[in-house]
Amino acid sequence: MSLEQLLTRLKMEHLQASLDSLCEHASKQDLNYREFLEQALAQEWGGRHQKGLESRLKQARLPWIKTLEQFDFSFQPSIDHKIVRDLAGLGFVERGENVVLLGPPGVGKTHLAVALAVKAAEAGHRVLFMTLDRLVSTLMRARQENRLDRQLQQLTYPKVLVLDEMGYLPMTREEASLFFRLINRRYERASTILTSNKSFMDWGEIFGDQVIATAILDRLLHHSTTLNIKGESYRLKDKRRAGLVTTPTPKENDTPQEPESVPMKEHG
Which SUPFAM superfamilies does this chain map to (predicted)? Predict the structure, then answer.
């Protein structure tokens, strides 16, 4: 059996595609057998990892690809860099903990949420991004079509679920109940990253029921990190500098009234 046939049967397509160049490089560098084998296997693994990452990012349905390196922390000094670095280590994903990003529109909540989701995808985790409006529509349609349990199970599979734009639209009691069922299923099993422009004390209005809001917060915040971003909108900063807008910078009392950062609570 030829080398090409062996690579085909072993499904080493990435190594097969670059075998000639690897052999040439090995000859020029006078690599021994072990060094060549290491480089050959690294080539195959790298190709598989990249293909898997591209597949996970496609399945995640992210609105765009943003990284933590692209985030302008100098523009948002209220963010604790240490907490973000800890989150980037993905320990919260391994522990099934949550992340809540609070703040007015345009301060970078979605950017941070997407960047953490990209980190999780790079680490091999299954990720899914949804706006809250789309989530609620999906759950309501599933209930109407008598497949709610299956839909809830599918939304439990992602190791990281990003829910964006909590608070822009109020929910009916039925919608809030469905949202609670999802949060309850994911509780201590998988991580949820949630962004909201509303403080926790306003969530009773969002869900239309203080009891349901309290139950959701109890499970969402039991093991979680909360970042309260206080600052100017990224989307308005350049226009403001150019004198195109004169909207005042949000005041401190206009932002959610939780602490700037709440560290993860210990299990137990």
Answer: P-loop containing nucleoside triphosphate hydrolases
CB of 117 closer than 8 Å to CB of 159: no
Give the H or E element holding residue 127.
Answer: strand 127-131
Q: Are residues 21 and 121 in the same domain?
A: no
Sign of the C-alpha dihedral computed for residues 252, 256, 258 and 264 taken in this order? negative
**Do 46 and 113 sit in the same domain of this protein?**
no
Q: Give the structural domain span for 15.
A: 9-56
Q: Tell me how far apart the alpha carbons of residues 10 and 4 are, in angstroms, rounded to a whole number.
A: 10
Q: Say how far apart CA 35 and CA 33 lie, in whole Å.
A: 6
Domain co-membership, 211 together with 114: yes
Over the stretch 45-80, which tens digit does the pLDDT of each residue have? 888 888 999 999 999 999 999 999 999 888 888 899
Distance CA 24, CA 258 (A): 60
Tens of pLDDT, residue by residue over 2-37, are 888 888 888 888 888 888 898 888 888 898 989 888
Q: Mapping DSSP to helix (H, G, I), strand (E, B) and coil, where does residue 104 land?
A: coil
| pTM for this predicted structure | 0.81
Does residue 168 contact residue 131 with C-beta atoms inside 8 Å? no
Do 108 and 183 belong to one domain? yes
